[in-house]
Amino acid sequence: MTVYRPELHVTAERGILEGPAGIYRTGGRDERVWNMFYQYRPTPDAPSRWGHQISEDDPFSWLDCNDVIVPVGGEIAVRAGGVAPAGDGVDLYFTSATAAGNTVQVAHVPHVDHLGDDLDEEEDLDVSAAAARLGAVVEDAGGVSNFRSPCVVPDWDAGTDRDDAHDGWLMLAVSGPETAPKPVVLTSEDGREWKLEGVLEFEGDTGIDLDSSLVAPRIVRLRDEVDGAIRDVLFVTLERDGKDTAVYAVGELAGNVFRVDTPFTIVDYGHDFTRPRNTTYNLVETAKLYERTYLYGFMTNTDRNGDPTAEPNWDAEGWANALTLPRRVTLQGGRLYQVPAPGLPDAVDSTDRARMWAGLCEVTPGSSVTVEILDGNGEAAVVITHAGDSITLDRKDGSPATADLHDEDEDNITVIVDGSTVEVYAGGGSVVMSSRVWLDGDCSGIRTRAHDGAEIHSEWRRGYVR
Question: Which residues lie closer than 8 Å to 371 by C-beta, 6 or more apart?
C-alpha cells in the first residue's frame, strides 16, 4: 500500500521526476486528451530523459506510457523544453546535453494520440520510437552558445493586431554558462531555422533584482478580462540560496525587449513550487485561445542541486517529486488568478485517500479561520490560517509559508490533500500555496474553526471518509 504517492498528481511511476517538460491537450470539450511530457531519471544514477503520461477527459486520471525521448550517442542527458503543435502531431523541443555543452533539438510526433497505443494490453505495440529526432535547431548563434530550456509559442504576424493571425514561431531559452545563465529570444518562420533576436532585456520597473539566477523562461499570452487586451505573461525561475522561486511579470515582448506593466510577482506562495509550465492546445482560433490557460508547477523543496532521495517516499515507495494539480489561470487587471481545474471535486471523490474542503468565509480584521489537516492519529499536522489580510500554511516544522491578501479579495479557501501534497487556493484565486507534507499515516480528516467573530458561511467536503 502506498501512503505518500498522490492519486491525482503526476509522479514518475518509478524514479525521480525532475519537472514538467511540456503539456499538450487535444480534442474538444467532450473528448479532451491531456499529454504530459516530463523530465525524469528512472534511477538516481541514470541520465535524464522524457517520460510521458496521458489522461482522458479530465487532467487527473494519469496513465503511464512509454518514454518518448531518451539519451543517444554521446548525450549525458535529455532535459526539459517545450511542445508546439505541428499539423496532426506535435514538435518536442528539448535540451540535448553532452560533455561539450547543450543544444536545442527537436523531435516530431506525427500523431500524438498514437503515443498512447501501448496502453492497449491486447496488442503488442512498440511506440517508443514515435518521436522522430530531427536534430539540432539551435546551436551557436551571434556569439552566444550553450542553448537550453526552450519554450516555443506561435509568434505574432508583424504589424498586425493581436486579435489577428499568427505567423512563425517565438522561442525563449537560456544561454551561456551554468553559473551565469542569460535568457534569450529567438524567432523562426518554420520552427526549424532560428534567428537570435538577442539577450532578453527589460523596460520598466521589474520589481526584483535581475541577477544571474534567472532560468527557465516561459511566456504565456492571456486576454485581460478588465480591458480585453491580449498581454504577455513572462515566467522566470530564480535560483537563489539553494531554493527556487517562480515569478511572473505582465507586459509585452517586442523583439528581445519585454516592456513591464506589472512587476514580477510570486506565482505560488507555498513551500514547494517552481518551474511552471503552461498547456499547449491544438486550437487555432486566436479569439478563444487566450481566454485562459492551464498551468502546472514542479513540487520540490530544493533547487536542482538538492537530493530528492531524501524524501520519505523514496525509501518507502521508490519515487521522488511531483507536479502540482492543473490550475485554470486567467488575467484580471494585470494580475494572475489561479483556481482548481474543472472536475476536481468529482476526481477527488473517485480516489481512495484524497480529500478536499472548500469554504466561503467572512474574516474581518482581528478574526481568523483555521483549517487543520489531521494525520492518521487525528492530530493536526498542517494548519492553514486565514487572518483576513494574510494566509499562512504551517507544516509545524518552524518555517510557515505566508502570503498577503487584499481587501478586494474574496474570503474563500479551498484545500486539497492528496498523498504527500497539499494545495491551498485563497482570495478567489489571487493566492495559491503548494507544499509537500509527509503525514503520520493517511489524512484522517480536515477540521475547521472560526475565531474571534469570523464566520464560515458555507462549506463543502469531498473525498475519502473513514
Answer: 357, 359, 383, 384, 385, 386, 413, 415, 446, 447, 448
Residue 413 bridge partners (DSSP) = 359, 426
pLDDT, tens digit, 9 for 90 and up, residues 427-462: 999 999 999 999 999 899 999 999 999 999 999 999
> Are 95 and 132 contained in the same domain?
yes
Which cell is 383 given? 494548519
Domain that holds residue 361: 344-463
Strands annotated E in 13-147 = 15-26, 33-41, 49-56, 63-64, 77-86, 89-98, 101-109, 132-138
What mean pLDDT comes out for the span 167-187? 92
Shared domain for 277 and 329, answered yes or no, is yes
Q: Which residues pair with 53 in a beta bridge?
A: 36, 64
Asked if 263 and 206 count as a contact pair (C-beta separation under 8 A), the reply is: yes
Q: What nine digits make up the cell of 71?
A: 539519451
What is the number of domains present in the chain? Answer: 2
Q: Is this prediction's pTM over 0.85?
A: yes
* CATH value at residue 231: 2.115.10.20
Alpha carbons 399 and 241: distance in angstroms, whole number: 16
What is the pLDDT at residue 122?
47
Q: What is d(CA 279, CA 344) in angstroms, rounded to the nearest whole number?
A: 17
Burial code of 355-364, b = ≥16 C-beta within 10 A, e = fewer? bbbbbebebe
Same structural domain, 313 and 392? no
Pair 280, 181 in one domain: yes
- What letter represents residue 417's amino acid? V
